[in-house]
Inverse folding.
């Protein structure tokens, strides 16, 4: 703009920001003369019935991708949340008290034409000395917000501050404490700062974050493991996005995010210097960074429970302690079979080890015999150690195998174990362990299938075809409307009528999805198939409009 002389500039040129080709949905324009962004919007007629669908439609007219008018939009978000709480349907007219409240908000939409935002952030300036990003966050019981400013210090000592972006979120329906909402606002700010610094290609050393909550600063200064999961998880997210040592304290009256968290009408917002330029001290040449003198807090701190285990030596042999004491050596696991082998005798015929041809090695360890003497595998796999399934040691080996095989199945664990050990009835023991594993049970859980309800009476009662019917639209399809040179195609839809009793189908070609188009298709359908007693639909707007028109022909 500076390269163009003033007499060559046009004051009537407006460039619409057509990001995705739908100019109507955006409503933001760039004034080349003033080099400012401006809002252009239209709303519905006041005489139209006020419903939740109509309110959302009016809200979408204000396209605000960077949150410049977030204080007004947060009021509309809170209002919509109240409609959801009161369970209004999409096309149900809301109560008169809510209508009056919405008219006040909607009337303020007209002031959006008075909002002008500087496009130039003064960052590409030869006289600049430093560029800083300052982010503020705050929360109320209804919403929490984050707002970011660009601060440019010039060589001549002047300081320029500009609003970059803002974001708001309504508080969840489940009531949570204000410090937790303040922490949610800090998470929102950290994400916004990450996006801004990436877009402007700035380092985190140029970022400064501010909050009026000393509890949040205390949480960020402490170790995440000290706090309860809600706080700890969010503290980790904030630390990943920002430097927790660059969080500072700001007074509530100097916090511009307080405006966004509580909401403000545009007639007041356009005159708010705190919102558009930030606090006064942000324009000073030197900023005093304040931190609370005492930032220790016990809010959301984990409760540590110390447990002590006392072992009484006079307890019975069935105690957990004795289960480990009893099996210091493998000799005690299968005492009778080992004693027979030591005496150079064969194990008795009733023994469960008879088929394994057991023997004692040089260390007096009971192993499986076999015919793998010349196999090219290690000795432990040739002659695995025999273990009983009725002891704690075997249970611990199965547990280790389950962990090392990453919660493997029966065959994987059995293959892993038999490379060193031969567990009697090992397969049943492994199955039992897997059934008791919570992680495996969670991953192997089978979702229950929903039991279908009874069929409607019209589906099971014999009747004339199309006496009870359902209707829906499909498409669009390209239909040829003229032949020869210059042939043209047009969008068209198909109205599908299905008989509820016989499943017969009737198709009608429709030019559009309006109520008038459906009424024409319905008249052609009834002329061929006869009148319907009942006609079901998915409550589309064209069906609702047709129902009203056919119910009130006058």
């Amino acid at each position: 703009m500076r390269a163009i002389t003033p007499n060559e500039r046009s004051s009537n040129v407006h460039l619409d920001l057509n990001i995705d080709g739908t100019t109507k949905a955006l409503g933001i324009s760039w004034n080349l003369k003033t080099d400012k962004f401006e809002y252009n919007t239209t709303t519905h007629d006041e005489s139209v019935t006020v419903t939740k669908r109509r309110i959302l439609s009016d809200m979408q007219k204000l396209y605000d991708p960077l949150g410049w008018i977030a204080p007004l939009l947060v009021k509309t978000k809170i209002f919509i949340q109240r409609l959801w709480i009161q369970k209004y349907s999409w096309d149900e007219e809301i109560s008169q008290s809510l209508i009056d409240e919405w008219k006040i908000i909607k009337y303020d939409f007209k002031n959006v034409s008075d909002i002008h935002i500087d496009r130039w952030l003064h960052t590409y300036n030869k006289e600049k000395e430093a560029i800083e990003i300052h982010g503020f966050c705050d929360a109320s019981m209804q919403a929490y917000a984050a707002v970011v400013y660009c601060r440019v210090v010039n060589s001549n000592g002047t300081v320029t501050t500009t609003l970059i972006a803002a974001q708001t979120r309504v508080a969840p329906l489940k009531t949570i404490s204000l410090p937790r909402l303040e922490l949610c606002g800090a998470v929102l700010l950290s994400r916004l700062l990450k996006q801004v610094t990436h877009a402007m290609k700035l380092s985190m050393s140029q970022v400064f974050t501010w909050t009026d909550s000393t509890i949040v600063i205390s949480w960020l200064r402490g170790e995440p493991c000290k706090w309860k999961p809600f706080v700890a998880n969010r503290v980790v997210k904030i630390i990943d996005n920002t430097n927790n040592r660059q969080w500072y304290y700001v007074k509530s009256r100097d916090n511009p995010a307080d405006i966004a968290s509580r909401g403000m009408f545009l007639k007041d917002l356009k005159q708010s210097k705190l919102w558009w330029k930030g606090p006064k001290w942000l324009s000073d040449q030197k900023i005093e960074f304040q931190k609370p003198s005492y930032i220790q807090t016990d809010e959301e701190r984990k409760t540590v429970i110390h447990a002590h285990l006392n072992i009484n030596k006079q307890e019975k042999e069935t105690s957990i302690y004795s289960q480990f004491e009893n099996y210091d050596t493998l000799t005690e696991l299968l005492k009778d079979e080992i004693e027979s082998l030591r005496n150079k005798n064969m194990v008795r015929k009733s023994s469960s080890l008879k088929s394994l041809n057991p023997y004692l090695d040089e260390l007096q360890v009971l192993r499986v015999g076999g015919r793998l003497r010349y196999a090219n595998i290690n000795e432990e796999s040739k002659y695995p150690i025999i273990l009983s399934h009725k002891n704690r040691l075997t249970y611990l080996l199965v547990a280790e195998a389950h962990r090392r095989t990453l919660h493997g199945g029966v065959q994987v664990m059995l293959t892993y174990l038999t490379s060193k050990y031969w567990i009697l009835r090992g397969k049943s023991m492994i199955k039992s362990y897997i059934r008791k594993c919570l992680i495996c049970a969670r991953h192997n859980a089978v979702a229950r299938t929903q039991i279908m309800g009874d069929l409607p009476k019209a589906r099971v009662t014999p009747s004339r075809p199309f006496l009870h019917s359902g209707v829906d639209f499909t498409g669009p399809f390209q239909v040829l409307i003229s032949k020869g040179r210059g042939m043209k195609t047009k969008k068209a839809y198909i109205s599908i009528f299905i008989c509820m009793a016989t499943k017969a189908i009737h198709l009608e070609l429709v030019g559009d999805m309006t109520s008038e188009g459906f009424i024409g298709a319905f008249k052609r359908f009834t002329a061929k198939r006869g009148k319907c007693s009942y006609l079901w639909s998915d409550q589309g707007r064209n069906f609702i409009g047709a129902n009203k028109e056919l119910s009130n022909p006058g």
Summary: The two ends are 62 Å apart (CA to CA). The mean pLDDT is 83. The longest strand covers residues 468-480. Residues 457-551 form a domain with the Nucleotidyltransferase; domain 5 fold (CATH 3.30.420.10).
